[in-house]
Amino acid sequence: MKKIGILVGEDADLPINLVKNSDIITFPFVLDWENYKSPADFYKSMRELKNKTPKTSQPSAKTFERLIKKALEKYHDVLVITVSSKFSGTYNSARQAKKTFSPSDQKRIRIFDSETSSGAEALITLHAHKLINSVSKINLIIKELEKFKLKTRLIGAFEDPRWLESGGRISKIQALIVKNMLKAGFRPVLTIKDGQIVTKKIQANAKNKVNALFGQFKNDNGSTEPAEAVITHADCEEDAIKLKEMIENYKPNVTIRFMNFISPVVGSHLGPGTLLLSWSN
Question: What stretch(es) of the chain map to CATH 3.30.1180.10?
């Protein structure tokens, strides 16, 4: 029996090649949308069906019970890493599932609230996977992850606030204000603070979201220490590539772990054209 297995949501946007043949198992969310073949196809349909809003829901406790039970057959301990509990019920579903197991098995299950999502959650997961090979006890891994997530950052810029509005993340008045700001060349840069999505800064003269994120990255990352970063996007790959090049030219000691699509379950709330940058020193 292997030592520790990791369950993490598809919202972490981990590429298949990174989780294949590893001890990382991804679990799906529920997305109510017409059939789509790929994330690119999903975002294309979002643009075309502007009056329709995707509906999402977290995995049920029953789903977690099944996934954890299967993982316990292979691993001595199971670590479940979830999207922030402040904007999803995933963490609570996992906790409810844990209660269905025997007291002895409950000691083998740990539920960890990443307090973030997308690339930042991926960095936390990859760090956990690295720790599995060097730290023997899961309690020590949890302590290390608590420290690591404090050093993990996520910033983002969206193309159209209507998706945040339709998903209930911002009000209709707020969406109108943001639209007018974008027209005037002011772009809100989002971040996650204390597990919640908030506006970090309003970047002036930043109609281009790549420049807005790069400018914020420079402001936030004055350290000379090596860093790892992840870029995720909602069908704006050219922007992602440009941002990657700008970061690598500015800070050669930053390693871009991967670029990938924002999963539809996350992108359904942020909308097509959203660009996210996550990093950790």
Answer: 152-280
What interhelical angle do 209-220 and 237-250 show, nearest 10?
30
pLDDT in tens, 132-156: 988 878 999 999 999 999 999 999 9
pTM over 0.90: yes
- pLDDT for 210-249, tens place per residue? 999 999 999 988 777 889 999 999 999 999 999 999 999 9
Q: According to CATH, what is the number of the domain 152-280?
A: 3.30.1180.10
* Residue owning tokens 């981990």: 14
Distance (Å, rounded) from C-alpha 42 to C-alpha 268?
9
Token output for 221: 């990352």
Where does residue 194 fall: left (phi above 0), alpha (psi -120 to 50 degrees), or beta otherwise? left
The residues of the chain that CATH labels 3.40.50.10170 are 2-150
Main-chain phi, psi angles of 200, to 5 degrees: -85, -45
For residue 258, what is the DSSP state?
E
Q: What is the CATH number of domain 2-150?
A: 3.40.50.10170
* Strand intervals (E) in 11-116: 24-27, 30-32, 55-57, 75-82, 109-113
161-179 burial: b if 16+ Cβ within 10 Å, else e:
bbbbbbbebbeeeebeebe
Question: Phi, psi (5° rounding) for residue 105?
Answer: -75, -30
